[in-house]
Amino acid sequence: MEVHGRTRVPARHVGVPNWVMKTTMAVTGTVMALFVLVHMLGNLKILIDPGEMDTYAAWLREVGVPLLPHGGLLWIVRIVMAACLVAHVWCALVLAWRGRRTGTPGSRRAMGLRGWGARLMLPTGILLLVFVAVHLLDLTIGRLVASPAFRHPDPGFHASANVAASLGRPVMALFYLIVLFGLAVHLAHGLPLAWQDVGGSGPRSRAVARVVGLLVAVMILVGDAAVVIVSWTGGL
After folding, report:
1. 30 and 195 Cβ atoms separated by less than 8 Å
2. 35 phi and psi, to 5 degrees?
3. How many angstroms separate the CA atoms of 51 and 17, rounded?
4. Does residue 200 lie in a domain region?
5. Is the dihedral of CA 45, 210, 117, 33 positive or negative?
6. What CATH number is attached to the domain comprising 186?
7. Residue 178 and residue 120: Cα distance in Å, rounded?
8. Is residue 182 domain-resident?
9. Is 8 among the domain residues?
10. pTM for this predicted structure
11. What is the 3-state secondary structure of the chain?
């Protein structure tokens, strides 16, 4: 807020309007949530038959060939996800900075559990950023934090072995479980908020969005946690 004499007037933001940033966060967050959900469904193949996961990983690299080069679809998805991540984080940081600058705190105390979800969005978001870096190093690049048994995923025939070797380490398995809980909290609060930011204003639609957000969060938590626990305990 800016003060002119005795009158307090809202500070004017220079640049992209807040509603554009909120809509961008809603769209990019939903796209990333859908990716995580599909990724979890692919991970579940390892519980049925590790060989099916390897076949699936190899198939992903052949989709669209010869129209696309080998691995072309994967690179398209990676570029889209990277763009969504950058836009999402940038908008979140700018909105947080603007909120602090104008001194417009929300009514978190009166919101109960949703207030806790709002408070945890920033720390869980930071945790997820760290996880993205660790996950890429661990199971895609094979550097620094990767298992000594890591084998390059291309052409995709070592996906299940890499997962089992990585999550067979207690420290890494525990880290993944902590991240999954953080992701569930982030999704359970973020998906209904995204619906609201793109125009879902009715109380019934907001209630449905909260239920859907919670269901998606629980599905991803339970599905991926099952893979982590089974790998950790040597079930693969």
Report:
1. no
2. -60, -45
3. 49
4. yes
5. positive
6. 1.20.1300.10
7. 14
8. yes
9. no
10. 0.87
11. CEEECCEEECCCCCCCCHHHHHHHHHHHHHHHHHHHHHHHHHHCHHHHCHHHHHHHHHHHCCCCCCCCCCCHHHHHHHHHHHHHHHHHHHHHHHHHHHHHHHCCCCCCHHHCHHHHHHHHHHHHHHHHHHHHHHHHHHHHHCCCCCCCCCCCCCCCCCHHHHHHHHHCCHHHHHHHHHHHHHHHHHHHHHHHHHHHHCCCCCHHHHHHHHHHHHHHHHHHHHHHHHHHHHHHCCCC
**Domain span at 37:** 16-232
Task: Using alpha carbons, list the distances in angstroms from residue 97 to 25, 29, 92, 120.
Answer: 15, 19, 9, 17
The number of folded domains in the chain is 1
97-138 per-position pLDDT tens digit: 888 887 655 444 445 556 777 889 999 999 999 999 999 999
| Residue type at 39 in one-letter notation | H
Is residue 106 a part of any domain in this protein? yes
